[in-house]
Structure formats: C-alpha cells, structure tokens
Amino acid sequence: MRTALAILAKAPTPGQAKTRLIPTLGAEGAARAAAELLAAVCDNARQWMAGDPERRSVRLWCAPNDDDPLFQQLFTDQQSRAIQCAGDLGARLAHAARQELAEADAVLLLGADAPAVDPSWLAWAVEMLARRDAALIPAEDGGYTLLGLKRAEAALFTDMEWGGDQVAAQTRARIQALGWSWAESAPLWDVDTPDDWARFCASRAPHG
User: Which of 147, 148, 145, 137 has the alpha carbon at shortest distance from 105?
Assistant: First the structure.
C-alpha cells in the first residue's frame, strides 16, 4: 500500500503563527516556536519515510504559499511542497487529501504542531489502514493530531467546529455514519497553549 503523508503548515510569520503563545513568548518567540515545532514534525516524517521509501512519501502543504525560507529549507525538492487551497481548515484538508489520494492508496493528514506523532505512530496508522477505512489519533484537547484515510469523503471536512473540543467526536460520528471501519488510538498531545509548549520543551531537553 502506497501511503502519502501530508503535513499542513502555516508560514511562521510573527503575529500570525501560534498566536495563543504570543502572550507568553511574544510574537517573534511564538513564530520561532512554530518553526521549531514544524522542524520536529518534519524530522519525524523523514524518519518514517526512510523505513519504506518505495511505498511512503511526504509532502509539506504550505500556506499562504511555499516561499517561506523555512519551507524551502525543510523540503528542498519543490515536488515535496504544495500550496494549500483557500478556505477553512476543512476545505484545505479535503483538498490535500484528494490530491494525495490521486497518487497513493492512503493518506495521513498531520498538523504542524503534533510532534508527539512520532515514526512509530505513523507506522501504526499505516498498519491500521491496511485493513480499515480510516485511522484516527485524537488530541488531548478534543481535536485530532492525525487522520488517515483511503477516500477523501467531503462529509469528514464540511461544517466542522474547527478549533473546538468536539472535532474528534464529530469526525468519529461521521466515520460511523459513512459505515466505515476505523481504528482509534489513545489521545496524544499537540501544542496550542503555553503549557503545551513547556511540555514540548521538556520533551526535547537532554536527560541524565
């Protein structure tokens, strides 16, 4: 099974990136945090792809374009970058899923602030999709960190309460309504708040 990993990322522009961290880190600090998180997510992605490069691919879906130096540094090959479409998060996820599934058997949709989704979790999602229609890794805040699909069904992305604490529950209910089989893991953490950022920094600190 060929699996495409689509990472959706926004340029780490001060004042526009990780705005919930600005009161603690300032606009520049929040932008640097966004860049560090994206680099960690991309490092996980590359490690995962290296495990089976013939059947795994990674593409960075960039917003508002792919001109940011960080995007070009992380993915020097232009074919490994794409530009997100206009619209809300649902429209952008659906577009990325459709584009990736035109070339692959399955797609993993991943945010740029979910470093806890390491290569072993990515491999878990692939394993689940080998025998199910979808794979869901919820986030501790009620969203999700990863959604794996074999079909880009519009119902999974339209009229969702993005940013709220019911996104995973709504997604789960819609998967059920479609009559699909799916696998779901225990929730993982992502980084939205200052406490989340402190947790990420602690996870990166050397031990011993």
Answer: 148
Q: What percent of the residues of the chain are helix, what percent strand, and what percent coil, each to the nearest 5?
A: 45, 20, 35
For residue 189, pLDDT over 80 is answered with yes
Question: What residues contact residue 58 under an 8 Å CB cut-off, 6+ apart?
Answer: 4, 5, 7, 42, 45, 46, 48, 49, 75, 80
Q: Residues 190, 139: contact at Cβ < 8 Å? A: yes
Cis peptide before 194 (omega within 30 of 0): no
At residue 57 the predicted structure's pLDDT band, cuts being 50, 70 and 90, is very high
Alpha helices in 51-87 (DSSP H): 69-74
Handedness of CA 180, 169, 23, 25 (dihedral sign): negative
